[in-house]
Amino acid sequence: MKPSLADTISVEIRRESILSAIPQRLILALNTELEERYPEEGANFFRLDADEVAEGRGAFLVAYVDGKPVGCGAVRRTDLHEAEIKRMYVAQTARGCGVGKRIVTELEAIARELGVSRLVLETGPRQLEAIALYQRAGFAEIPLFGEYIGAKFSVCMAKDL
Fold first, then answer.
1. Cβ proximity of 29 and 142 under 8 Å
2. Distance in angstroms (rounded) separating the CA atoms of residues 148 and 47
3. Where are the alpha helices (DSSP H) in the chain?
4. What dihedral angle (degrees, nearest 10) is formed by the CA atoms of 103, 20, 66, 5?
5. Which pLDDT does position 4 carry in this prediction?
6. Axis crossing angle, helix 128-136 with helix 99-113, rounded to the nearest 10
7. How many domains does the chain have?
8. What's the pLDDT at 3?
9. What is the mean pLDDT of residues 115-132?
10. The domain that contains 39 carries what CATH number?
11. Are strands 68-77 and 58-65 parallel, antiparallel or unpaired?
């Protein structure tokens, strides 16, 4: 069987400060895409504070292919037993190459290091490719939680670690 592109590209994942330039550019690209997909008032949840992804509480990761930043994702512990994936993004040019899968895998590993037993996330119903990625990674849909309760454009998912 011939290897797929996802098997042949080299993806490097680095922990970075959410406040530095590269993460800020990726977050801006993510926010722009989400605003285009969900222009409705109150449809987007962009907040993620630097202290929530500080060492010991979470992490912000950047994915690089050939030295170029192409994606990001964060995990933040929300309580003693649970952490949330936030700010997942892969640039259009790198989609379908396994970058998102690598980011999710690394975020799961960090969540385990944080000592949590459950990982949750929120995405949107117009992001079918994201929902499929999470399902392949073992996440299942759950009722809306936290700030997403009552949100018309939210899909929440969870995975026991």
1. no
2. 12
3. 5-8, 21-37, 99-113, 128-136
4. 20
5. 44
6. 50
7. 1
8. 44
9. 97
10. 3.40.630.30
11. antiparallel
